[in-house]
């Protein structure tokens, strides 16, 4: 994001300041210019006072994609120190202002810093007392920063660390792997009104991530929920607690993890455990001994409650071979556990998968798992499975399929897409034959499905004051009716991308779907 270097030449006086900018009036068009090892310095006026050089009247510097503007730039060649006031810099992601800056050696320090990602205006901005920047690595630290949205102070941070190419969403913990996380402000309607803060990042040192949840769920329905949650993470430590208040009573869940030690509980499932799990690895072999005291409801009801001690280990071996575009991966595993009040438990199995990645992508795999004895707690249980799966990817085509031998069911999907500059038209056909579920009056399982969904996904918004529409429509061929429909509107202003959508499920396609309408609202930092 900010990439700067230091040099004893005049060009270092600002090349060390901030980064990548393409300004409207290039320095090469200034009346006075000077070639330096760092780039081209220029201005409407140039004066020398001994070893001090002063550019004024539109002073600027162009160096490797960087252009900086200031009323004046002062460089003392004897001390190697740069001073500048009222500096303005624009990058592909940010616009910056600083009241005063000093550069010496490999460190830049600035005071009175203001930064924004907005294309115009400053409805979202960071105010900072000081900036410290390493001119060799490009990393910068804002100290004592204050985040403002529409001039409303939202959070204070002791320090924020920026790396080259990082977006503000990544710095604040609102983006992972380049993908925007769900908006921390939740406002939607799904079986009732859902409103409040969800995983909202609280102010604090950037190395320690703390998030707050305060939500009202299904408000207006017969079963409303008030949810309060708090989570924190630092390296190998993390902790979370969630409390749900319902008309039927209270429920809680959470975990505390400190290296190999952990405590986890879920009152709704009747589960808790306190213990340790330590992982060791040698090349492709992983060995994880464990031990805990736990309670579990095997079928989700208090009638099947079990308590006691468990100790054991899990062994996995990951073998991977590659030859050109072909890859083969095998991962057998074994788990055993001993109990204080029951016979032991053994589970073993593995997965083998072959892949070809070239002009097209093809993968085929098989996973299996067998249990011997009864696993008392959910932590060590490994579900028995025998499943064959595969997939094929071509430009504009994705095919997925799998067959579960234990359940004797086959399911999969086929997706076709037609991409243009403005977006992609697509269709997805999903099927599930002999799926497990209740038997309906026509003799079919209620989770069998033959659904076709048509939709359009617009390209990401790049212009300010631009909008896009994303519709979808689904049809159930078994039940012969519209299964779902929806529409999402996206609007980009100077600072945010606003999302407003509605989706209705009319014919549920799998157990976690409920026929109902859902209204959603969200926003993303541009």
TrEMBL record:
<keyword id="KW-0732">Signal</keyword>
<feature type="signal peptide">
    <location>
        <begin position="1"/>
        <end position="24"/>
    </location>
</feature>
<protein>
    <submittedName>
        <fullName>LPS-assembly protein LptD</fullName>
    </submittedName>
</protein>
